[in-house]
Amino acid sequence: MTGRRAGLAGSLLMIVLVAVNLRPAIAVVGPLLTEISDAFHLSGTAAGALTTLPLVFFGSYGLVAPFLRRTPNGETLLVSAMALLVAGLLLRLLDAPFPLFAGSLVAGIAISIGNIAMPTIIKRDHPSRITTVTAIYTVAVTVGASLSSGFAVPVEHLFDATWRLPVGLLAVPAALAGLLWVPRARRAAHAARSAPPPAAPRGVAALVWRSGLAWHVTVFMGLQSLLAYVVLGWLPTICQSRGMDAAPAGYVLALSAAIQAVGSLAVPVLARRTRDQRPLVVATTALTAIGFAGVTWAPIGSVWGWTVILGFGQGLGFATALSFIGLRAHDADVAAQLSGMAQGIGYVIAALGPLAIGALHDATGGWTVPMIGVLAICAALNVPGLSAGRLRFVGAPAEPAAQGVNSGISGHIPN
User: Fold this and answer.
1) Is residue 410 one of the residues assigned to a domain?
2) N or C: which end of the chain has fewer CB within 10 A?
3) Mean confidence (pLDDT) of the chain
4) Is the CA virtual torsion 157, 242, 54, 277 positive or negative?
5) Residue 407, in any domain of the structure
6) How many domains does the chain have?
7) If we measure between CA atoms, which residue out of 92, 126, 169, 174 comes closest to residue 10?
8) What pTM did the predictor assign?
9) Nearest to 90, CA basis, from 62, 61, 67, 110
């Protein structure tokens, strides 16, 4: 293996180490939600809030970043994210409702920092491989979610423990990932001290937030994430309400996450065969809608097949949404701000999903009305997706609105 390939492999491995920690804190709750709700006497709405609270803060750093005088380097952000994630996971273990929800909030903020830093690092370090590296990143994210949701109940039963054991064990890989990124964070901080000052975050942010294309990317990110977190928060519960035991219901969620990895890997392969990303958007919405309908209304014995369809569609959507950040950004500075905007606003939109589903289920006593709403969102996802899928760029010098701001940004890597 040449030095260049070894460096690329090492860079990808470091990305994977962080990525596998960016969903388990949320995914582990679904299979354990009934037990946690019984332990703390939570209502359906409160149980939905337990999964929603981290999602509300999934994009919190992105909303703060435009107001910073100087944006921290991505490596430092990832170390900070892993440290906060460990703290949030451990806080959840305390035997009281307040730290349970507070730990979820802290975990959400930690994941927000990692979510937003990673696409910027990919755009900066792998500008010619954005779709491929993003696919690897999303696979690692979904594998982490799959393993945590699939093994939560079996680990609990194996050690004759409570829900706290599988939740607490998640702190170990998060701590390891943070420690392994520390040397890179130190080198990046040293390099930043001797480098010329970067473009002002506020100026680039103003450019991005005025862009219609950036808003289309943001809404697509938000709606596809909303659908994904309905799955994370409620799929096991839906299966249990249809007669499944807790462990098999957890396996359904794990299968969905595993197939999402396959869908994510398919994105760079399919993207090479299409002129732009619009066919990926149409495939995402169709497969996701079909999967949701099958899981909810088809005979329960066929749930595994419908879960495969659902997972593949959502894998396509997740990788496509994250790829839009790098593909539609003109340079790395624009990518940083677009990542913050798309995920900051997008995850606020996404957070409404589990909460709304919980409230509708409480109000109607069934899953028909909530799932009709979900199918409507699947159809609406085409509107921003088809616009974001066209070959255009946020912050390109050709954009009239960009001329004033972009004239002060030079030397950046073009997309």
Assistant:
1) no
2) N
3) 85
4) positive
5) no
6) 1
7) 126
8) 0.76
9) 110
